[in-house]
Amino acid sequence: MNTKTKYLLKLTLAVVVLLISVISINQSFDFSTVNLDQITAEKPLFGADEFKYEAPTADAGDSALSSKINWAIFIFVILLVLVIANTLDISKYISKITGKETINQNEINKWIMLIFMIVGLAAVVWEYQVHGKLILLNNSSSEHGASYDSMFTITLALTTIVFFITQFLLFWFAFTYAKKDGQKALYYSHNNKLEVIWTIIPSIVLTVLVLRGHQTWKSVVYAEDNYKGKIKKIEVFAYQFGWKARYAGEDGVLGNVDYKFISGKNELGLAYGPEVDDLLVELKDKIKLDQEAIKNLKVTLASLNIDYSAADGLKDYTTMEAIQKQIDDVMDGTTLSELEASIKRKTKQIDRIEAIKNNPKIFASTFTGSEEDDIITQEIHLSKDSLVTLNFRSRDIIHSAWLPHFRAQMNVVPGMPTKFTFKPTKSTTEAKKEFGEEFEYYLYCNKICGTSHYNMKIKVVVESQVEVDAWLKSQQPVFKKVEAVPAIMNAIDSTLATEPVNKLALK
Ligand SMILES: [Cu+2]
């Protein structure tokens, strides 16, 4: 077989497979069902809707189908490249035997450049129009957010203009000045004037942008210092995988906390005397149990062996395997060292707690009594138009508290308290009018922190101070037991507070 036939055969084969794959894509996927409205819907990117899990509506075959489509597209692209490569190959072969150039590569390239520019820039415009709507911009719910949004808009506008000018020039020059026969390229290595222009202009623009950013940053970070004592403080506590908020009780003071005090009943580790005493007893009991377990290791081993034989008799291989693992652990000392490590850990915790309790000065400053009426909640309620500082603490690993609608984000680091001060300016009710009835504010975790990270959020409600107070009143303090106020009383209370006309009527 000569080379020419070989090329033709290769090309025919590639075209046939290409046709088959096009037909199969067409048959396996009905493009008419793609609804662009789903993507372009004018909805905020982060609202209640998006994070509500919706069970797939189509049958399970759906994902199999989409993976089939992905493969088909993949094969299609490879074949397309093959076809093009083959075509070029053949043309090269033809020009070799005829001695004439069949395809002017420069001519093709220059048109490809032009097409690429038009399609690429059109795609950017489309992207701005379609997905640009989904960006949270110019609808901030916090005071500093407006400034943040305007900085974002200005930066985006400037970079967009520069992008379009430079991309146009890049491809237009490639198109207009493509190589022509008999033409020699100009060697042009340097132009001081141009260098000065494109160094100074961006420097000025960037300096203005950075200074503006610094101003805004300062106003956010130092807000608390500027209004000392006048800002309400709420603690936001992060753990895998959730958030808890803590409000000061009637005394208006958030009680002290210490990670050493964390226990099953005292999740946030409040410095509450009776609870800490209970924890000490609990720790000591657990140490005793560990010590007994060490003493009884031989007995444990014997009973494990009996259990093993029993499982053997029943041919229960799963149980046998589990028991064998336990026997191995006892035999090779793993169990012993685990128990010893556990005792050591608990002893250390007891020592540290007792060191606080035995030092009168530290004791007095730790156990102040202001923690007793603190309120731990599953929601964050903020008062509209007043500054609030969120104090962040993490129990386990690094999380990140993210309030997209308030343009606020702060890392939440174990052992390192962080905070963010801001002023909410749009109530939940107002936001619902803007984003739809379903909308709720949320504080999300924005640091991938484990398997349930996606679900780590806490609802945020912005309302009037009166409503916040009424809500707080309906919550139970952590430790101080107050008589529960009947819900109906609360309702009347808040009605009285918000509607003076009714108040008169009731009187
Ligand atoms: Cu997290």
Order of helices and strands: HHHHHHHHEEHHHHHEEEEEEHEEHHH
Task: Count structural domains.
Answer: 4
> Which molecules other than protein and nucleic acid are bound?
copper (II) ion
**How many helices?**
17
Lateral strand order in the biggest sheet: 3-2-1-5-8
Major pleated sheet: 5 strands, mixed
Mean pLDDT: 81
3D architecture notes:
- The protein is of the alpha+beta class.
- The chain has 4 domains: 103 residues; 118 residues, no CATH class; 149 residues, Cupredoxins -  blue copper proteins (Immunoglobulin-like); 94 residues, no CATH class.
- Helix content is 57%, strand content 11%.
- Strands 3-2-1-5-8 form a 5-stranded mixed sheet, with no helix packed on it. Strands 4-10-9-6-7 form a 5-stranded mixed sheet.
- It is extended, with a radius of gyration of 35 Å.
- The C terminus is likely disordered.
- Bound molecules: copper (II) ion.
- The site of copper (II) ion has 6 residues, from loops.
